[in-house]
Amino acid sequence: MHISEGLLGVPVLAAGAALTAVGTAVGLKKMDYEKLPEVALFASVFFIASLIHVPVGPAAAHLVLNGLCGLLLGWTAFPAILVGVALQAILFQFGGLTTLGVNTFNMAFPAVIMGHLCHKGILGTNSFVRGVFEFTAGAGAILLAAALVALSLALTGESFRAVAWLIILTHIPIMIVEGIITVFVVEFLRRIRPEMLWA
């Protein structure tokens, strides 16, 4: 879901950079020193998950796990995802440095939104209700991220609008997989590190 360099117009790049700067500043302000290892852990989870490519018809998509990051990190998902996206751009040429702001915002903002919407739901005692909120956080973050990527491309020009719809359709299977992974990870953490869910 990375947007490569040379595709986006300057206004979209500038807006993405500004929004990422604001989100990262908020995330750093809310980050406790004790939470730093957890943020680093999820930055590496995001980085590694995005390297696993899944063939979907003629295209390929990859796991993101931004919903899981948002659910457990809140606003600190912004600096975690920024580090992951930057390393992917530098080490593997996924995306690029000029699109770093847009790519980070497209992944981190849905993470924060779904984290805030679903966090209280994962703290309940009913396992089915918890599972619904956990699945929604994982799948919903991918849906929103795909929509933001599509919007970024659509705002650049008419020629990208067909591709924008294809991005959303391609990520429907990834949404389902990410929702299921999020349920399993959160329930596993509930058993071994429940304090992570209450942060």
What does this entry show, briefly?
The chain is mainly alpha-helical and about 200 residues long. It is about 70% helix and about 5% strand. The chain has a single domain (about 10-199), classed as Orthogonal Bundle (Arp2/3 complex 21 kDa subunit ARPC3).
Describe this protein's structure.
It is a single chain. The chain is mainly α. It has one domain (10-198): Arp2/3 complex 21 kDa subunit ARPC3. 70% of the residues lie in helices and 4% in strands. It is built from eight helices and two strands. Helix 4 runs antiparallel to helix 5 and helix 6 packs antiparallel against helix 7 (161-170). The mean pLDDT is 85.
Strand content: under 5%
| Helical residue percent band | 55-70%
Radius of gyration: 16 Å
CATH architecture: Orthogonal Bundle
Task: Note the total helix count.
Answer: 8
Spans of at least 5 consecutive residues with low confidence: none
Mean pLDDT: 85
CATH names the topology as: Arp2/3 complex 21 kDa subunit ARPC3
Distance between the termini: 29 Å
Judged by helices, strands and strand pairing, the structural class is mainly alpha
- Most strands sheet: 2 strands, antiparallel
